[in-house]
Amino acid sequence: MAKSVSTSVTSIYPWNYALQFWHSRQQPARPVIGMSWYNQPVSASQLREYLTSCGLDVVEAFRSAEWSGYFENQLPPLFPLVMSFPLHTQLLLSHHASQLAMWLRIVSCQVRVYQALSPLHNFDFSIHYYSSDSEFPWVRILGYQLEQLVWECELAFSTSNKEVYPKEAVEQKQQVLCPVTQTIPSSFNVGRWYLHAAQAKQFSQLVRDFHPAHLSNVMAKCLGYQRATVNAVWLLSAALSYLPLPRYPLQILGHFPSPAYVDSVVELKANQGPHGHDFRIVSAATPRLALGQLMALP
C-alpha cells in the first residue's frame, strides 16, 4: 500500500520534536513548524532539466573509476534538494514563519550523502523550520529511500544583502573558511562560466523558487541588490559539476557571503586535499561569492 502524501504545515510541540533525527548538532533546537512529503518518485524530466541547467553530464560508469562524477545509475548529491525545494518554500511562506521569511536568501548549505542515491527508488522527505533571536533562521531536510536515511541538508538564511556569515560558519572559520580564502595559484582555476539571466530563471522555475530577487531586476533593486540574483543552489550545483566526487559517505559545505548576480562571469578555484576539495567561487565584482568544501566523511 502506498504511503499517503502530506504537505500540510503543522506546528511542532515540545513533546514530539524529540522524535526527529539529529546527526550533526550536539544541542538540537526545537523546530517551529514542520511537514512531510512521502513516496515521491524521481522525475526523469526534472533530472534532465537539472543536469542541463547545471552543466552536468551523465556518464557511463567505468569499471575502475573511484572518482568520476555522476553516473547514469546515481543521482547528483544536490538533486534531492531540488526535489524538496518547494517544501521549504511553502514553510517559509506559511503564517507560522516570520513575515520576513519571503525575503530570505540562502547563506549556508550543508549536505550529507550517506550512500549513492538511486533514481529508481522514491523519496520520503521530512522538513522543519527553525528560528530564534540568536541565530539565522534555518531549515533541516531529511531524505529517505526504502525507509533508510540516505541524505540530509541544512540551509541557513539571512535577510541581509551585504556580506554575511552564519554563526556556524564563523565558528568553523579556522577549519573551513581560512584555507579556502587564502591565495590560490592560477593553476587551480578549474572552472569559469556565465550566469545567464534566462538560465537563472529556468532553474528558479525548475525548483519552484519564487524569491523576488531571483525573478526581477526591479524587485531585486527594491530589496537593496544591484540587480537580479541567482539561486545559491544553482551556483553550488554548477560548481560541483567541475569537481570529482569523493567516496561515500560525503559532505558538501557551502557558505555564500555575498549574492551572485545574473549576467556576470564567475570563476571556480579549488585546492585538492586528501579527502576532497576546498573551493571558492569569485567574480570580478565580488571576490567572495561562495566558499566551501566537498569531502569524504570519515
TrEMBL record:
Tree of life domain: Bacteria
Full protein name: MaoC-like domain-containing protein
Native species: Zooshikella harenae
Lineage, uppermost ranks: Bacteria, Pseudomonadati, Pseudomonadota, Gammaproteobacteria, Oceanospirillales
